[in-house]
Design goal:
There is one protein chain. The protein has 309 residues and is of the alpha/beta class. The chain folds into two domains: 104 residues, Rossmann fold, CATH 3.40.50.720; 180 residues, 3-Layer(aba) Sandwich (Rossmann fold), CATH 3.40.50. The protein has a seven-stranded parallel sheet with strand order 8-7-6-9-10-11-12, with helices on both faces. Strands 2-1-3-4-5 form a five-stranded parallel sheet, covered by helices on one side. Helix 5 links the parallel strand 6 and strand 7. The relative contact order is 0.15. It binds NADPH dihydro-nicotinamide-adenine-dinucleotide phosphate. The site of NADPH dihydro-nicotinamide-adenine-dinucleotide phosphate (NDP) has 29 residues, from helix 5.
Length: 309
């Protein structure tokens, strides 16, 4: 162990699991509130720490966001002028891809219709479609988004991915930039939102964008609720323009009990758990970044606060 410390703050993550996983990487993790020698703290592993948190640690050289989405961190006015990294963990990406694949298959295989029919004791045959005839649009081809898109392609779906900058990915049709979004929305039977919340994506899927989706398409949101105009989404579900949705994230979380989404039987609601950080595998990247921050090598998963992700 070195004499450096990593300060930990999260109201809901398991400190002991992170401490053990990081000890294996030779990183000493302490609960921030238990740290007396603040000067020894060189790194912080945080999820939504209270305002003013960072000012307690004058020698901080690296802030690790305890998650992939950094929107809650990068907008803060009390950020220290040090590099910020997000978690980058293949098992987190695999868990997310599993959720997305579940949601896509659920819509592609008409499972909601069978669930409704079962409740009515109704034998309701719908002839299965060849996945190659089903277009899946994946908005956001980042670490999680690209893994999920490739998983859908592996199942035979025709996948169209959309991102900020152009990309070439085997087996996936890609496009980039605002002008290309309409074509992706208009050609997808299932749209999966995997965009980070930034100034450019907040409210991006508004009524006009939702209207560009194919009539009767399904919508899956696993990134941030704020990217979609929730009232417009509810209206599109009411009219049937969007036939079904699987929603893991919401404008306000927990989803308020008065939200009409709760009672829509065409909507599956899960409480923001499509993927989580797994200490045993995520600790490796953190340990590597601690080593890199000592030697001045480029960090893995570095966030650009100006860009917002
Ligand atoms: P990344 O930051 O790795 O990638 C973001 C992707 O979105 C990139 O492909 C980027 O394009 C694209 N993008 C960003 N802004 C725009 C824009 N304005 N227009 C078009 N494309 C854009 O994100 P991840 O894939 O790792 O994660 C996605 C999100 O998932 C996270 O930000 C987080 O909010 C959410 N999340 C949700 C969880 C859950 O349990 N529900 C768990 C973990 C994360 P480019 O490649 O060109 O930069």
């Amino acid at each position: 162990m070195t004499s450096e410390l990593m300060a930990f703050y999260s109201a809901h993550d398991d400190f002991n699991a992170w401490r053990a996983a990081l000890a294996a990487e030779d990183v000493e993790l302490r609960q921030a509130d238990d740290i007396v020698e603040a000067g020894r703290v060189r790194h912080a592993l945080v999820w939504k720490p209270p305002h003013g948190f960072f000012a307690r640690f004058p020698n901080l050289g690296l802030v690790v966001n305890l998650g992939a989405g950094v929107d809650a961190l990068v907008g803060r006015s009390d950020l220290p002028d040090v590099p910020i990294t997000r978690l980058s963990d293949p098992k987190m990406a695999r868990m997310m891809a599993g959720y997305v694949l579940f949601a896509v298959l659920r819509h592609a295989r008409n499972i909601p219709a069978f669930e409704r029919a079962q409740r009515q004791r109704r034998w309701h045959y719908i002839h299965p479609r060849d996945p190659e005839t089903i277009n899946v649009g994946v908005l956001g081809l980042g670490e999680l988004g690209l893994t999920a898109a490739m998983e859908c392609a592996r199942q035979g779906f025709r996948v169209r991915g959309w991102s900020n900058s152009p990309k070439a990915v085997d087996g996936i049709e890609t496009s980039a930039g605002p002008d290309a979004l309409e074509a992706v929305l208009g050609s997808s039977d299932i749209v999966v939102c995997m965009l980070p919340q930034t100034a450019a994506t907040r409210g991006l899927l508004d009524a006009a964008r939702l209207a560009q989706m194919r009539s009767g398409a399904a919508f899956v949101n696993v990134s941030r609720g704020s990217i979609v105009d929730e009232m417009a989404l509810i209206e599109a579900l009411r009219t049937g323009h969007i036939a079904e949705a699987t929603l893991d994230v919401f404008a306000t979380e927990p989803l308020p009990s008065e939200s009409p989404l709760w009672t829509m039987d065409k909507v599956l609601i899960t409480p923001h758990l499509a993927s989580i950080a797994l200490p045993a595998s995520a600790a490796r990247q953190i340990g590597e970044n601690v080593r890199r921050s000592r030697t001045g090598e480029p960090l893995l998963g570095r966030v650009d606060p100006g860009r917002g992700y």
